[in-house]
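--- STAGE predict ---
source: upstream dedup step, 1 unique chain passed
mode: sequence only
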Amino acid sequence: MSTRTSALDAVVFGVDVQSGDVRGDAPSYALAAYDGDDVARDVVTHRKLSRLIDDEEPAIVATDNMYELAADKDQLIHFLGSLPAETKLVQVTGAEQPEPLSRVAKRHGVPYGKQPMKEAEAAARLAAHNVGHEVSAFTDTTTVKVSRGRSTGSGGWSEDRYTRRIHGSVKKRAREVESELEEANLEYEREVREAYGGFANAVFTVTARPQDIPVSRNRSGDVRVEIERERRDGIEFRPLAKRRDHVVVGIDPGTTTAVAIVGLEGEVLDVWSSRTSDTADVIEWIVERGRPVIVAADVTPMPETVEKFRRSFDAAGWTPETDIPVDEKQHRTREHPYDDDHQRDAMAAALYAVDAHADQFDRIADKLPPGIDRGEVTARVVAGEESVEAVLTDLTDDDEPEEESTEHEPRELTAEERQIKDLKRQVDRLQSHVETLEGRIEEKDERIDELEASLSGARRQERKEVRKDREVSRLERKANRLEGERDDARERIEDLERKVERMKALWKLDHSNFSDVSAEKEGLVPVKVVEKFTKGAIREADDQYGLAADDVVYLRDASGAGRSTAELLAEFEPRVILKEGGLSDVADEILFDREIPVGPAGDVAMQEVDELAVTREDDVEAVIDDWHDRAEKRARDRKAAMVDQLISEHRAGDNEV
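--- STAGE serialize ---
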């Protein structure tokens, strides 16, 4: 009885090359669209095939050779990336070492012909019955990257604001993406590269396919969002149906039933025991782990319960000549773990059965050509009592036309007789299995009703717990994110409060050190301190407490300023500049031309608290008056120099005449 299930959630496309070659001339393809009942046939170009796949979104695109659709690995990956989200590419002939399509079709009873359209139809029918391997180049992990949509460039003060704005936009969009992922209950990891004013980029690694993510690829203004599905290192093949290898099964029946699964090479694959499981549970457990070739017991004769299991699988039986002693079972199983004596006995039975057939297994393996399934041949030789040669002939027969096969009449008759014998044996086995199963049906129906009710309740509770856990995880991530935003806001508030306190200090300073100041503390003016005569120091002072017109500015170090620095300070239009040290000539000229008074800081009495200071209004007025006197003299000297120069130039002109 086949354990395969239908693959027809939608139509299946079978494809084979009709003419041409994908590596050279433009190929045409035989296309068979199979919906489970009918087959629609057509011959299409590669471009039309791609368009039909996009329009109809078949569940499977089936072929006997994936490189009939792409010239090389890169083109194949591109083709896989262009398929609709729910469409699979399936190679029905196997994985890295495919078999001939004719052999696969015969093994599964699917009609086959050598014409391209017949091969396309055979591929579609095989894939519809879960035969073949899905070809995959991508994982179920997707990378969402939020980054700058423009270059930040390089430059001066305004360029800093521009860069800060772009990085702030990236940070804002990254938080929006994170919120959308959380609302969709998707698992993700976030990696952020912080930059001036925000984020340079944010990368989200999401455990989902692109079509399941509520974020789209776009580029808008300062930000762009890129989505890319994670590629595998190479091409991966995943069987549509779970493979079950041929195994040897050891069974120890009784109040506690134990089962051991051993491979044909003698490796212990699994062991299990239960006091509550019935025969059906044991059969189900065995079926999930392999296809029995031999069913073994550790006593002679074989217990009736073990014999029923053997008949159910149509497997060969094995028992020892005499009951196996306990010390021998302990010695044979010493290298393998087990939980109880029942598991040990089942494991010993299976291992001794493998030992007894080891020479036969080796002889079978020596006769097998490459590409033939060893387990299939071994099962038919050991359990079916066929010869290796007969099995190989049956497996490698490629469905030759009837007129060719009739030329070898004696061998053909032998094959027919062998086939009849096989069919009779299968009928006997199935009848025995049916009788066994019918005896359990009534018991199963009653138990199923009870278990379905309890299972339904358990599933509802489990789904409720899963949703609760996901919601808790989402809220925890959201709380962490909001706490981060709160901490950022608190730091900003603290910075602003410190700035306000510094400004207030200008009007609340204790002037007790000024002996000539009145009790009412009148006649004082604030002084804005600039540490150095540089553009950076000027901007820092402006950021801390603001520079405005008619401010008294104190340059703690006035040396080294150039033209642009002097012009920057002059733009604030200070009332007077008090300086320590000498000004450069170019700075002195610019401030003089802008009529900004400059005087030595030593001429005034100042009191400083941190970055702030105050001085007397009378001292400031005295410095300004002194500058005006010097400015008038400087202007007269400059005018006299200009007159002397004109006279010199005039005399020089007369001498030339």
